[in-house]
Amino acid sequence: MKIQSSSPKKPSRDIVERGKLEYEWATSLMKVIIKILKKYQRSKPLSNFNLGFCLHITKETSVLIMAAKSLGAQISICSANPLSIQAEIIEFLRYNEINVFAKKNPNRKEFFENIFKVSNTNPHVVIDDGAELHSIIHQRQIKGVYGGTEETTSGIFRILSLQSTTGLNYPIIGVNNAKSKYFFDNRYGTGQSTVYGILRTLGILIAGKRFVVCGYGWVGRGVSSCLRGLGANVTITEVDPIKALEAHMDGFNVQRLEAILPKGDCFITCTGQKDVISRYDFDIIKNGAFLANAGHFDVEIDVAYLYSQDNHPIQLRPNVESFNIKGKKINLIAKGRVINLVGGEGNSPEVMDLSFSNQLLSILFILKNYKKLGREFHQVPKKIDYQVAHFALSSFGIKIDKLTRDQVDYQTKVYLNY
Ligand code: ADE
Fold first, then answer.
1. Which of the listed residues 30, 53, 59, 84 should we mutate to test ligand 1's pocket, taking the one with most ligand atoms within 8 A of CB?
2. Residue 62 CA to ligand 1 centre (angstroms)
3. Ligand 1 centroid – CA 56 distance (Å)
4. Residues 69, 35 contacting (CB under 8 angstroms)
5. CA nearest neighbour of 301 among 293, 311, 312
């Protein structure tokens, strides 16, 4: 099937070349995916299958896309976020005959039209980040999808809600929930890239500043430990008593948001929840505070209220707007959209290697097993999760021990005696 992708005009060779260099740089750091590729390249198990992707269009994503292409797939892709797109990657992928439905800085209508276009390409497998494409395919009752995957915590919330309301039309594997994904991508990956996004946007000194991290899930843990490493004074806010206790025992200040609002220099939301910093909080927040969001959706900070109160904020620098709210300055970073991708480069290739290897192996698993899988949410099979970890260890040159037969027997006996 030949699909017309939304390529407005012929790109310059320059931009394609820049995209290629970025792709090659990421590839050199994504060794697990390359190992998987080598294993399956001869049999081309994705031949005759259409894959529909809705991911952040980054250099790391191009490695996954090119891997799927070289396993034989026909591919269409749109962006999971209007502001996270790398233009040179779009052109590099188009040059390589991938159907890319995306452009840099689309308006809302264009952004959703592109997701619709991917949903129209008869995908056999749908690979999503945030569940926007899954939702549209379900709303439009598009048939012929064998299965799908989901990359993020926020997307899995949406899929579980879809499952419990209208039901799912095909099995969906929650890649986010693989241990070899969230332990590393959400914690070390997003932890580092969020702090990098803030540094690149503001260029401020972190040491000595009072940072407030809302949410102590895997992302919150990663962000706060990176900030602490750079000398910040870090306070955590939480709603979950276990996570709050963990933050306390990890040595962080734990407080109610209300108590820290007047003192924090920079607030970072990492919850997946809406209105974490609400319109009422702006009444007591410190003058000159910076606000950033690390969650997938731009709902964690009440951005709409800021624009409704001051529709001409001062553009302090790229990606930083200063609002005048009742005489107070409130500085919003990256419009409250996912800071690590909009203000920075997203997660580094080494962690995306783990996440996207889980993606690639899950796609292969779906195509082999979709007839047996129920139309419901599934976890990544443990075999895939552990295979990714083993491949990653070997790519880092690390060897680990194995249980002896005796130890396996001992463990089984102890277990049976309970
Ligand atoms: N999500 C977070 N970082 C990413 C990256 N570099 N590429 C694609 N998706 C991402």
1. 84
2. 10
3. 6
4. no
5. 293
At 302-333, the pLDDT tens digits run 999 999 999 999 999 999 999 999 999 999 99
Within 8 A by CB and 6+ apart from 161, the residues are: none
Q: How far is the CA of 265 from the centre of ligand 1 (A)?
A: 27
Amino acid at position 309, single letter: Q
Mutation choice for ligand 1 from 53, 175, 352, 359, CB with most ligand atoms inside 8 A: 352
Residue with CA nearest ligand 1 atom 8:
56
What spacing in Å lies between the alpha carbon of 278 and ligand 1's midpoint? Answer: 27
Q: What is the mean pLDDT of residues 130-142?
A: 97
Nearest to 234 by CA among 275, 262, 267: 267
Higher pLDDT pick, 418 / 275: 275
CA of 25 to the centre of ligand 1 (A): 15
- The alpha carbon of residue 111 and the mean position of all alpha carbons in its chain are separated, in whole angstroms, by 18
Distance 99 CA to ligand 1 centre (A): 19
Measured distance CA(321)–CA(227) in Å, rounded: 23
Give pLDDT tens digits for 183-238.
999 999 999 999 999 999 999 999 999 999 999 999 999 999 999 999 999 999 99
The type of residue at 112 is F
- Give the dihedral of Cα atoms 63, 65, 71, 75; nearest 10 deg: -170
Domains of the chain are 13-181+347-395 (3.40.50.1480), 188-342 (3.40.50.720)
- Ligand 1 pocket, Cβ-based, cut-off 6 angstroms: 55-56, 58, 60-61, 341, 346-347, 352
The one-letter amino acid code at 258 reads E
pLDDT exceeds cutoff 90 at 416 = no
H-type alpha helices, 41-152: 59-70, 87-95, 108-119, 132-139
Q: Which two tokens stand for residue 168?
A: 């799912």
Paired residues of 50 in beta bridges: 74
For 65, 77, 99, 203, 238, the CA distances from 74, given in Å and listed in that order, are: 10, 10, 9, 42, 44
Contact indicator for 332, 303 with CB cutoff of 8 Å: yes
Entry pTM: 0.93
pLDDT of 1? 47
Q: Which pLDDT score is estimated for 11?
A: 75
